[in-house]
Design goal:
Structural class: alpha+beta
Mean pLDDT: 79
Shape: elongated
Strand content: 5-15%
Protein name: YitT family protein
Strand order of the largest sheet: 2-3-1-4
Organism: Blautia aquisgranensis
Largest sheet: 4 strands, antiparallel
Membrane topology: Multi-pass membrane protein
Distance between the termini: 27 Å
Order of helices and strands: HHHHHHHHEHEEHE
Main location: membrane
InterPro entries: DUF2179, N-reg_PII/ATP_PRibTrfase_C, UPF0750_membrane, YitT
Radius of gyration: 24 Å
Length: 285
């Protein structure tokens, strides 16, 4: 029980960082330029031209409605995390409006600001999905679609965000609409690649004359497990022990260094994998 508290605290520190990242991208770069490439923030940009409310206030109202739906369908743990994200994000946007009012775009360079409007929220969304949470809004809809279909998160997000982009053409000028299309495509791709990178592990096939030392290091120092196969060299016909193990990216560096120290003649095959399911690894199905 003692180990769970720091882990949960660290989890919410990471989630809070992602929220700040997302809100900076939305408030500083997305709202002033009327970029509407999906998400509740995109809806808020469009609706703020018809409703006497600020984008941040509309963002909060829509998020709360979708939050209730997501809580009922996706479960308690997801609901708590996403509720935290929704409340903190919405409050932060309102604080930004009071402390840093933005009457015009930050730089006036629409392409530069489009890049940051894409990168910051997309990276934040990937971090939140990795922590089994979301930025709220259409992310919740995407997670519901993912739960009841074989569609991945980026595909689901693309589906639910397309409508907002189409509306942006009707509400704003053609330049803003085209930027929104570009933003939607880039955001979808970036989220997909970011999630894949966060899930990345490395699969080792190790043929060594010192399998016991390497196995001990894997279990005791890396806190991972391994499987040993008995094989035979085709050329020498000598018995060989083959170690199979999966570690994360940081542990992979430590393992390679250790093997190089204890057995420089060892033969290694290292394969990248973003889909490792089992004890000690997260499930993304």
């Amino acid at each position: 029980m003692k180990n769970l508290v720091p882990k949960r605290v660290m989890e919410y520190i990471v989630i809070t960082f992602a929220v700040i990242l997302m809100d900076v991208g939305i408030y500083v770069f997305k709202f002033p330029n009327n970029f509407s490439f999906g998400g509740v923030s995109g809806m808020a940009v469009v609706f703020s031209h018809f409703i006497p409310m600020t984008s941040a206030q509309i963002n909060l109202v829509i998020n709360l409605i979708l939050l209730v739906i997501g809580f009922m369908i996706l479960g308690k743990d997801f609901g708590i995390k996403t509720a935290y994200v929704t409340v903190v994000s919405s409050l932060l946007l309102n604080v930004f409006e009071k402390v840093f009012p933005m009457e015009k775009a930050l730089t006036g360079n629409i392409m530069l600001e489009l890049c940051f409007a894409i990168i910051l929220p997309a990276l934040a969304a990937a971090i939140l999905f990795f922590k089994n949470a979301s930025g709220g809004g259409t992310d919740i809809v995407a997670m519901i679609i993912k739960k009841y279909s074989t569609m991945n998160i980026s595909g689901a997000l693309f589906l639910v965000d397309c409508f907002i982009v189409v509306v942006s053409f009707m509400v704003f000028d053609i330049t803003t609409g085209l930027c929104s299309v570009l933003g939607l495509m880039a955001k979808t791709l970036l989220i997909d690649k970011s999630i894949e990178r966060m899930k990345l592990n490395k699969y080792f096939t190790i043929i060594s004359s010192k399998p016991e030392e390497i196995s001990d290091f894997i279990m005791k120092d890396l806190n991972r497990s391994a499987t040993i196969y008995h094989g035979e060299g085709v050329y020498t016909h000598k018995d060989k022990k083959i170690i199979l193990t999966v570690v994360d990216v940081k542990q992979a560096v430590l393992l390679q260094r250790f093997i190089d120290e204890v057995d420089p003649q060892a033969f290694l095959m290292v394969t990248k994998s973003s889909e490792v399911i089992g004890k000690g690894f997260m499930s993304y199905i």
